[in-house]
Amino acid sequence: MQGMGETFYTNKYINNNNFFQIRDEEPQIKATPKPVRLVANPRTSFDSERSYIIIGGLGGFGLELCRWMVERGAKHILLTSRSGIRNGYQRLCMSRWKKEGKNIIVSTENAANLKEAKQLLQRAAAIKPVGGIFNLALVLRDAFMENQTVKNFEEVCDSKVSSTMNLDALSRDLCLSLQWFVCFSSVSCGRGNAGQTNYGYANSVMERICEHRTQEGLPGLAIQWGPIGDVGILQETVGSDVVISGTISQSIRSCLSVLDKFLQQKHPVVLSCVPYLPENISSTKTSKTSVLSAVGKIFGAGYTLSTVAEIENCRRSCRLQSLSPEFGLLVSPTRCKSPKDMSQDSKFQTFPIFHLVQPARASSIFHGEAGDDPSRWLKEYERIAKFNRWDDTMCLTNAYSFLKGTARLWYENNEVNLSSWEKFQEQLKIAYGSTELFIKQVERELKNRAQKRVRAHSPVFKVI
Description:
It comes from Trichonephila clavata. Keywords: Fatty acid biosynthesis, Fatty acid metabolism, Lipid biosynthesis, Lipid metabolism, Multifunctional enzyme, NADP, Oxidoreductase, Phosphopantetheine. This protein is of the alpha/beta class. It is built from 18 helices and ten strands.
């Protein structure tokens, strides 16, 4: 074997039919191969060699959809809007895509018109074969049934029904390589909504067209969306904090994540909404926990807040977080460190939000009542701060949680002037410690006010 190895490394040309036996065969061992199952996460992608059409593409959802498609590989997209580019955000998006080398075109053709719809498809097919059509057209004429008119029904149906019928008929001849034919419907169609009978009817017709297409083996998908948050007509009119047909608003990020899954299945009509469940907060105890949990999530805390003091502490620590870029601090509200870890980590300076390692005793709370000595409380507070390895900034931040009564009210009224831990101690001793210092400070303030009042009433100052 050694000689063969030398031949292997020294000879320049070796016959490929030579084999090396490393060890003897083991016929007594019979190992059957086992199949291995791997979890695959499918991901929707778009072909850069195809064009895509978004009807109503300059709306809030349309721009987000276009951005999402560009991130997934699309390069040629036609956005239709009867009014064209109207605001600065639309211009900003178009400018960014142009710099990235994307061919995003704004068209004013109305898909509800058969002639203009044909021109739109021909224009897209001239660029690249059409790979997908997304109909986001929307017109609302809400009113109760007794107040609805024929004109209202016609205007709503033109944007939904007429455009979908035209695109369906024309795409059969002009878009032979079509992969997606997607129509955005509404939960108002599937579950109903008072005042939107015309809108629900138009969406229902659009869904029947998609069902008919799938029966013929053509792509067709209608998505019943609930209220959309962040962007869109709901956000612009009434805001996102509303309940519609028993549903609450769904974030645009969640909508795009769901759309990714919808484009990979074969059902013609699907639904995506966030149900409103008031029974989850029926009891007082549960309601309190839910509200505090929500506040904790808003502040980015990694645990459930249980007291109002913790909420205030969280708010003040988040204020430090906003100042971190300016002062070079690393503020992490969700990262909890033990005193040992903080002593070893000397490279970074962290201000985490966490429960006190050293429990607060009754003597560590300062109420500012008669007989309370701020010097004694500061001594007790510094003992807790030393044990928890707080620096001056953390001492100032957590001090609010150790103040009650008039002391807390004093902190809230003078928070602007308490810029440092030394300033806090000085002002606290002046306010509650030495009576002489407190009297001098009051006299100084009264004197300044009197001088300002005299100047304001002086004839010279009036002329000036």
